[in-house]
Every structure is written in structure tokens, then in C-alpha cells.
Amino acid sequence: MAWPWTRNAGASGARPVRGRAKARAFGFEASRFGRRLKGWVAERRNINSLLSSGGDQLRARARQLCRENPYAANALEAFASAAVGTGIKPSPLNMDAETKKATMAAFLWWTDEADADGQTDLYGMQALAARAMFEAGECFIRRRVRRPTDGLSVPLQLQLVEAEMLPLTHNESLPNGNVIRAGIEFNAIGRRVAYHFLRSHPGEASMNWRGMERSRVPAGEVLHLYRPLRPGQIRGQPGITPGMVRLYLLDQYDDAELDRKRTAAMFAGFIKKVRPEDEPAFNGQPEGAGEGLNETSVEASIAELQPGTMQVLLPGEEVTFSQPADVGGAYEAFQFRSLCAISAAVGLPYHTVSGDLSKANYGSQRGGQVEQRRRMDQFQHMTLIFQMCRPVWEWWLEAAVLVGAVPISPAQWIAQRNKLVAAKHIPPSWPWVDPLKDRQAQALAEDRGWTSRSDIIEAEGFDPEEVDARIKADREREAELGLTFSNTAAKAVTPGAVREDEQGFSVTA
User: Are 196 and 182 in contact (CB under 8 A)?
Assistant: First the structure.
């Protein structure tokens, strides 16, 4: 028999298939260069080379889209709102109740002082960081240690630095054996040791020659926030990248369609004359009245149509009204499919990007929110919390211990640093389409022992210990004032007693 990779060679035996026939016959279909795929030439450089060569232009176009394109701007705001909301807050895990209470009170006070520019609080900086990662792919946070005379509760502030401040094209080998790749200095084992920032933003109109000077900042003083998409990636890619071309072309199409309709609507009707030399008489002037017309009188001869107008025309004249072509029913379908592709590219539901709820129902909205929650949970815990929230908490707690802003001694900090710095960072809650059903599901899960109150409270974006303390304070105040509400009038249940819930299941108290 002849094997698939041989030809019929007769008595001389089988010969292997060679040349172009072999290339067409074997290998993955997507790797061939046949008739359909001969124009498909894929880029083989790694992501760092791609960003170094075209990253500046990519980032500039992404920023322009987010400034001017309504869908891109809405997607940007929706992403930052879903990723951060009102803020991702820490909750210490290994502190006693009194120490935790004092520590969180000091941290809450400092959040208003955190921004070195003084324009927002710590949670506003989280939102700015999320916006920067969607729009530019990355941003940097620089630790700024302040003097005690600056009057801060803890002598520490944070400075957000835009991606343009670290040039993608700065690549250099240093005499000490370190290398600079895309503005980041690495040592011999590939560890980041420093960032070489420009002293001024390259897009600043008033930047002088000193703005092109670089400042070397140790890596321990900088947080680099970006979402790695490939192993070995060292700089960030804008989150809007996969949808940029479609957004730009769709915006051009919309603009052209709007301008076409506007231009067509300017023409109400056209006068058709038998002889070109005839003077216009649509304004009701008698024959011959147009002799000696100047430019002003010709412009005045254009009639203004009003409701109920009966206009007499001269012999041989007729009026044809403008009938601009309509785009038809294909316009909305085309827009819908284009925006679906853009929404998939940026990882947000269609109705979130477009603001169009006409095609949404309970099931589609909830299904879209479930998938969005998965993506956002991943981004929150693997990127934003890991790269920003944890290091900032550790920076602050160390500074607070050194200045005595928290009831933790320096000796205790040195001996138990890893234990004291451990904290759970709680994102804000996700609102649902039907909160009543979710509350009932949470109550059922707690009754069955499938989850705990702490898990439910943390899912709402709150600290369980803080919630319990506030509930206790409310109950004490209600008892002191003689107030009774439905939640405090429930009958007491003896521990160990068996009762039935609303569904008829037996529950042990």
C-alpha cells in the first residue's frame, strides 16, 4: 500500500512528496499559504518588541478614542466603575479588635491625604489607575516620603505617573552589567532594580530641554500597574486595543452618515426651467421683473416654503422636491453587530458600552453581569489588589508604625511584620438586577451552612467585624430609647432547638 506521504512511484519504490505540493498537503490549515491565506502574514516579534516600536502611537490613538469617541468613553467609565467602584478597602486579618479599630481609623484618615497632587483620595487614585490601564495599558505609582513638618497624619503620599513618563524606546546596556529595556533597568538575573523616568511629560507644551532629562528611581519606590497578557511582558498594552480599529472606522461611518443626512436636508426643492436663460420666477415676481437682477436679488428669489403656500409658476417651470436617499433598515443592524464586536473586544456587555437597553431583558442582563463579574474579579484580585492595594497598605502601615500613628510598636513590627501586614482587600459589592432573589439565596445558603455571614457581608463590600459592631451599637441604642423594629422583634430561639424555615426545611438553631 502507498502511505499518504508518498506518491505512486511504480517499480522504483515510493518517493516522498516534496516542494510546494507537500506544503499544501500537510501542516495546520491555519499555517498554510494557500489561495485564501496567502495574504495573511502574522507578526512574529514578541510583545515587548511590538510595544517598543509601535506602543507610543497605539497609546496616543487609544487616548484620542477615549477622549472623543462616545462608545470608547463610555466603556472607559464603565470599566473603572466596575473595577473599583467606591474603592477597594483593606481589612487586617491578624490584629486584635482594639488594634484593628485604631489602625483602620488612622488609615481612613490618611486616605484623604494620600494623593500627592491633592486632587482626590486613595480610592479616587484607584479609579484613576484602572482608567489608565484601560486607556494606556499601564501607569506608575511613586512613593513620596514626607517630612514630619508637612502636617500629615502619616508622612507618606502617593504620586500617579503616566505611562508616557517612561519612554518605551529607551534601551541601553549599562557599564555595571545591568540593561535598560523600555525604560526599566534589570540586573543580571532579570530583576527590576530601577525606573528611568523623564523629568517632564513629553506631551507638555511648556516642556523645555530639561524635560528630556531622566531621573533614576529605585524599583522599591515605584509600583508598576499593568495587566500582563504574555509571559515575559514588561510594559502594558491598552485594554481597548482589540476594538480600536472598529471604533475608529465606525465613528467615521457615523460621521459621514450624519453629514450626508444634514446636507440632503438643506435642499427642500429644485426649480426646473425649460430654457436656462429664463429668470427665476418662483418668488412670484411678474415676467420681466428679473431684468437687471444683481447677486442680492438672485438670492432673494429663492422662495421660503410655508404651510398652505399655493405658488404660481411661469409657463414651462416645475418644482421637484428633494428626496434624499435613506440608509434603510440595514443601518441599525450594522451598528448593532459592530458594537457587539467592540463590546466583546473590550470585555464589557453590549448594553454597557452602547447604553442601549432596548434588546436587554432580565436574563440577558443577568447573564452579561455574571460574565463581567468573573472578568472583573480576576482583574481586581490578580492585578489591582496584587500590584497596588497590598503594597500601598504595607507602605502605609510601616510608616504609621514608625511615627506612632497605630498601637503597634517598632519592635513588634520587626518581629511580626508578615503577620501584621496580612489583610483581606474587599472590593465593593455588585448590584444585581433582582436583589430580592439574591437576598433570599444568600439567606438559604447561610441556613444550610454553605456559606457564612462574613462571606456574605464581604461580598457586599463591607468588613464583617465593623458591621457586627455597628449592629450591636444599634441594638443597644434601640433598647435605650425603647425603639422596636421588625428586625429586633424576632422571637428568641433556644440554642440547639429545631425549627422549620419558610421552605419547610428543619434548621437547628
Answer: no
Taking the C-alpha atoms of residue 350 and residue 361, their distance in angstroms, rounded to an integer, is 12
Higher pLDDT, 447 or 384: 384
Closest CA to 385 of 91, 179, 171: 91
The Cα–Cα gap between 63 and 12 comes to: 67
> Which residues are bridge partners to 158 per DSSP?
115, 143
Phi, psi (5° rounding) for residue 439?
Answer: -60, -40
Question: Whats the size of the chain, residue-wise?
Answer: 509
* HSE toward the beta carbon, residue 501, CA cutoff 13 A: 13
Phi, psi angle pair for 205, to nearest 5°: -65, -30
Separation CA 180–CA 187 (nearest Å): 9
What average pLDDT score do residues 270-287 get? 57
Which pLDDT value is given to residue 6?
47
Does residue 208 carry a pLDDT above 70?
no
How far apart, in Å, are the Cα atoms of 72 and each of 149, 248, 250, 251? Answer: 44, 10, 11, 10
What sections of 282-430 are H helices per DSSP?
295-300, 330-346, 350-354, 362-379, 390-403, 410-415, 417-421
